Amino acid sequence: MFSVGLTGGIASGKTTISDLFAKLQVPVVDTDIISRKLLEPGELAYDQVRGHFGASILNAEGKIDRARLREIVFTNQSEKSWLETMLHPLIYQRSHDAIVANADADYVLVVIPLLFETNFQALVDRILVVDCLPAQQIERLVRRDHIDESLALKMLSQQLQNSERIARAHDIIDNRSAEADLESQVEILHNRYLELSRV
Length: 199
Ligand code: ATP
Known about the structure:
By secondary structure, this protein is of the alpha/beta class. It has 9 helices and 5 strands. Helix 2 packs across helix 5 and helix 4 packs across helix 5.
């Protein structure tokens, strides 16, 4: 089963790009969606988080308050490590299962925001990195999430630099210009992946 991991910094355009692959009927496995699902009531990670942080981590509906959880791990390194050590193997296994479940497709696109940071390379055969300028990431993040520029800058500073991702990419998609310019790049990559999947 051929799989391509799509990664890139925050607000670099991963979802925009994976939507274009999905339009070409490529199955998309999104590790962010898997992670969110794992934190829903009844799921393994829900019980772990509730047990670790106590009931104060739940909102009025009894669900995990994701904003609160994000805030805790953003400011506390040991809690961040605890969460990642618990969550990452679960995300890896679910992603692997989702790839295998699409065995009849030519290839699967797996969106993995923290591909290098989490060492998820073994999950995929090929790595596609989205590139754009840090200033564009900040601008797009502020516009999309209505957050302060200072918070956006802080979020960006906690990530790998784009150049570090690019150095480890098999393919690069350039998202420095208009969104409309992505479609033709995705088509070229799609044809490349179809060929590679048949080797
Ligand atoms: P995250 O890391 O938060 O998951 P992401 O990498 O999936 O984000 P997107 O959500 O696809 O990024 O894009 C971030 C924002 O930037 C979105 O609002 C999207 O519409 C916008 N955007 C993406 N590409 C471009 C572009 N080339 N020009 C202008 N805006 C863009």
